[in-house]
Design a protein that fits this description.
The protein is mainly β and 167 residues long. 0% of the residues lie in helices and 51% in strands. It has a single domain, classed as YVTN repeat-like/Quinoprotein amine dehydrogenase (Methylamine Dehydrogenase, Chain H), CATH 2.130.10.10.
């Protein structure tokens, strides 16, 4: 083991490295997103505006933004440098389990316990598309390297592949 990053007061649900590999961002059931320095193990920032558990956290390809998925069905976009909340996106009717930035950083995908995935404009926060097809919770969303396909994984035992090349 290299390092231990301590600070969350409840289970940690998600973590991701920054693109430069110098930081880790984590999300927890304690309703916080935390930004850590890997080398020093220092907690750099605690983003504590969520009012319910945070199930997912992702970083933009340039490392300048964080997206988090909340237990209350909202998706939050943060400035990773100063911790400022940039946007709160609403549309899911149940907990958001997974979030991901597109490879170009222009879109955000989210998947939730409402059996749906959604795609958002990462700058404006506009909902671009709702993807319906699962009959169980959507536990994971991920973009193909070219950003033209979205994969969603669900409690219904399926992985669905979506053509999103028109977005």
């Amino acid at each position: 083991m290299l390092n231990t990053l301590k600070g969350h007061t409840k289970p940690v649900m998600s973590a991701e490295f920054s693109p430069d590999g110098k930081r880790v961002v984590s999300a927890g059931m304690d309703s916080t997103v935390r930004i850590w320095d890997i080398e020093t193990e220092a907690l750099l920032k605690t983003l504590d505006k969520h009012k319910s558990a945070v199930h997912s956290v992702s970083l933009s390809p340039d490392g300048k933004r964080i997206v988090s998925g909340s237990g209350n069905g909202s998706v939050w976009i943060w400035n990773s440098e100063n911790g400022a909340l940039l946007k709160m996106l609403t549309g899911h009717t149940e907990s958001v389990q997974s979030t991901a930035f597109s490879p170009d950083g222009k879109r955000i995908a989210s998947g939730g316990n409402d059996c749906m995935a959604r795609i958002w404009n990462a700058e404006t926060g506009a909902l671009l598309k709702t993807l319906e097809g699962h009959t169980g919770d959507v536990n994971w969303v991920g973009y193909s390297p070219d950003g033209k396909t979205l994969a969603t994984a669900s409690d219904d035992g399926t992985v669905l592949l979506w053509d999103i090349s028109d977005l």
